[in-house]
Amino acid sequence: MKKKKKAPVNKKTGLVLILDFILVFSILVFLPPVGYYSEIQAFWQEPKVAAAHFVIPPPSPIAKNLSNIPAPLLTAKSAVILDVSSGMILFQKNALEPLPQASTTKIMTALVALEYYLPDQILEVPDNFRDGQNLKLMKGEKWPVKSLVYALLVSSANDAAEILAANYESGRIGFIQRMNQKAKDFSLSDTHFVNPTGIDEDGQYSSAIDLARLASIAIRNPLFFQVVSTPESIIYNEDRQISRK
């Protein structure tokens, strides 16, 4: 009895079945869940825009007089009105011209002192300073820094300025160097100091715009703001045995 021959295996058919299995398996594994398309998140991409062929002019640093009201007549050599919040110049007359700044120097003197000293710190008067406006603070007396700052800004006392400078870690010269460094830090390009009082000396100058910007910075200091808002004050020395009005 003859054995029946086995039907030959179609190798091509077997390969097709394997590929079909892989395809079905891939679909089952990677098939998105229900609601997939409703969960797709769109990510915004900045559109590519061709470069503009024109230049937008910057905003004017000086306000325009749209009301045609004439500017005031001033005898001052220079002046400026500065809007602090925007930095815009509302009015100016020779605002960039360097001129002797007199006792407005003491704005920077106060800022350096308030940066370096504590308000309750006690300083000794190293000498009797009698140049210009002063409170006749005597050599050897001891005064709190806060009292000296009041004397400096309310009475414009030159001796208070010199005492604050003399007690600085590197002395009066170091104090003045710090004043000039802060001027650079504040971008006051038309300002330079050679003393802490404002007495006229060669190399001591500032401009109206620099002083306006310096003042707008200074009033952000709470103690400075409090002091310059005071019309008069009585200050006391360390043990409150000596006072000055």
Essential attributes:
about 240 residues; mainly alpha; two-stranded antiparallel sheet; two-stranded antiparallel ribbon; about 35% helix
Q: Indicate the low-confidence ranges by residue numbers.
A: 34-40
Q: Secondary-structure element sequence? A: HEEHEEHHHHHEE
Gap between N and C termini: 140 Å
Tally the beta strands: 6
- By oligomeric state, this entry counts as single chain
Structural class: mainly alpha
Q: Estimate percent helicity.
A: 25-40%
What proportion strand? 5-15%
How do the strands line up in the largest sheet?
Answer: 1-2
How would a crystallographer describe the biggest sheet?
A: 2 strands, antiparallel
Instruction: Tell me the overall shape.
Output: globular
Tally of contiguous helical segments = 7
Could you tell me the mean pLDDT? 84
Task: Report Rg.
Answer: 38 Å
Q: Can you describe what's shown?
A:
The chain has helices spanning 11-30, 105-116, 145-154, 158-166, 171-185, 208-218, 222-228; strands at residues 79-82, 89-93, 122-124, 142-144, 235-236, 243-244. By secondary structure, it is mainly α. The strands form 3 sheets. A two-stranded antiparallel ribbon has the order 1-2. Strands 3-4 form a two-stranded antiparallel ribbon. Helix 3 runs antiparallel to helix 4 (158-166). Residues 34-40 have low confidence and may be disordered.
List the topology elements.
Layout: H1 11-30, E1 79-82, E2 89-93, H2 105-116, E3 122-124, E4 142-144, H3 145-154, H4 158-166, H5 171-185, H6 208-218, H7 222-228, E5 235-236, E6 243-244
Antiparallel strand pairs: 1-2, 3-4, 5-6
Helix pairs in contact: 2-3, 2-5, 3-4, 4-5
